[in-house]
Amino acid sequence: MKKVKILYTVIFISIVLYIIHFIMNTFLMYYKPEFLNFPKTFYSQFIFGYYTQFVSLFFSILTFIALFYVKSGLGVIIKEGFFNAKCSKQFKISGNIFLITGSLSFLWYLLLLFYSKGKMPISGASDVLLIIIGLGMLVITDIVKNGHLIKKENDLTI
Amino acid sequence: MKTIKLLKTAIDIYYYLMLMALVFGVITLPILLFTNQSYQVNIFDSEPIDLGMLDTLETLIIVVSMIAVLGIYFVAIRLIKQTVNIMSYGNYFSDDVIINLKKIGQLFIVCAFGFSVLKLLINLVLFSQFSININSTFMIFLIMGLFMMFLSEAFASAKQMKDENNLTI
């Protein structure tokens, strides 16, 4: 249980950092410093023009939501023990969000690669890792359900 | 069952792509370094670094630490591949899975600090800057490491329950 509590704290810190990141982004959107005031022609070279900068923010929001669900799942584990139906639901939602974020982020990277005619540095490893994390969370959901069933049988026997 | 097969395929692809990249890197790195050509590398979300502009000692420091950290990461991915392979046969709560998950967790935590030290070294060598910061790579590896260690504990508990169940029958 000690490790779950540490993990819960680390995820909580990540969520707080994400919130600070969002606040900073919103602040910079409305009160731009002079060095960030680019002319309109500058944005024309990007794929979605001015709105290109918000694509990564969108992925950050998705990751933030997924982390929020992981935190809730861990909270349930701390209260009710390792195997329960509630946490498997939370993990399933977070797994699906991680999977969607990883896939969309990887597609975005591929789009940029084609758009820049291969001038982008080879990357995308973190996106694949996010897809693996998503799939891993979905597998964990199945295992938690399995464990929940064993626990139920055990409790009934006693 | 379908999800674990998908996960197994994804990890297999990731593992072999990483293996290919490592082999390619090991072969091309010495050739490019000795010919003083531009050699750009980027680790996870960091900006590309040109190793060609460094002198021999600086290159050696960066390359050795990069190989060490990526080596640990590679071992962790290999262990995940083995573990998912065991789990795909339905042996979720076996001793091998529990031990491997614990090891993977520990390796990921080492990676979290390793990548941070690497970034610190790169900043120090390339820009003569000493900066310690919390980046997304550090947080991802720390969370993944702790999660794996937590799973190892949870699986050990499930194994105990399963053994008790089997004894009762």
TrEMBL record, chain A:
InterPro entries per UniProt: DUF2975
Source organism: Mangrovimonas spongiae
Record-given protein name: DUF2975 domain-containing protein
Keywords: Membrane, Transmembrane, Transmembrane helix
Residue ranges of the TM segments: 7-30, 50-70, 91-116, 122-144
Keyword Cell cycle found: no
Pfam families for this protein: DUF2975
Transmembrane listed as a keyword: yes
Domain of life: Bacteria
From TrEMBL, chain B:
Keyword set, alphabetical order: Membrane, Transmembrane, Transmembrane helix
Pfam families registered for this protein in UniProt: DUF2975
InterPro entries documented for this protein: DUF2975
Keyword match Transmembrane helix: yes
Keyword Transferase among UniProt keywords: no
Residue intervals passing through the bilayer: 12-34, 60-80, 107-126, 132-152
Tree of life domain: Bacteria
Protein name stated in the entry: DUF2975 domain-containing protein
Organism name: Mangrovimonas spongiae
